[in-house]
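Checklist before submission:
- one chain only
- standard amino acids only
- sequence pasted in full

Submission:
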Amino acid sequence: MTLTNKDQIKVRDYLLGYLSDDAQEKIEERLMTDDELFEELEISKNELIEEYRAGDLTQDEEQRFGNGYLASPEGRSDYTFAMALDCMEKPAPTPKPLSFFDQLASFFTPQRLKFAGVGLSALIVIVIAVLILRPGPQKSLALTLTSTAARRNASDPKIQIVTISPDVRELRISLTLPQSASQPANYRAELDDRSQIKDVTLAGHDAASVVAVIPASQLPVGYYALRLYEVRSDGKEQRIPGDYYFMVEKK
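Returned file contents:
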């Protein structure tokens, strides 16, 4: 049985303690027999923990979640796991190589200029020609990411590692849509690098995926999460369940 958006909302309300006693009893009965609903429960736990830590919950939601699920032994364990994942050690950045201008400036010291003679003019011509003709980064790196909402084990996000070489200009990331997603007028995406959240350019979408385009210059080494929102024709937004995780390494 495929879950609906209403099922996802009920699971979230269940974790936040908004359901009536009768509705709570019904969903607990379903959790014992419905694997998909149980999987959605695990996913929603992780999402709410992330929102709790990021301060994205309302004051009432934060109080209910903190005094409810997070106060349980399982909740404390999941919260500790999320904290450990966030503190994952990032590789030390590779020293930035000197640009041609820096190399040129270091070459033309007073001592070297004293002995340059006629060869100086020829060297300047060669360096300028290299700078003009040297091609810049041109390649687009394509990859596909699946949200945590579509993964069986929500406690193991299976972070995809993306290695960006110097010739990569941009990442074109295909974000797979869950089967329960509707077809809105448009989408909006956000990139969370654990220090700030910013909007991402979208290149298009179809019934199965949305393509996000991110310049490589905006992706230093680190851990990232993409979030996707449905944008209706009336301007209202609905978040697509789950996050799209990836980690960036540089060659």
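Reviewer check: Residues 5-86 form one domain.
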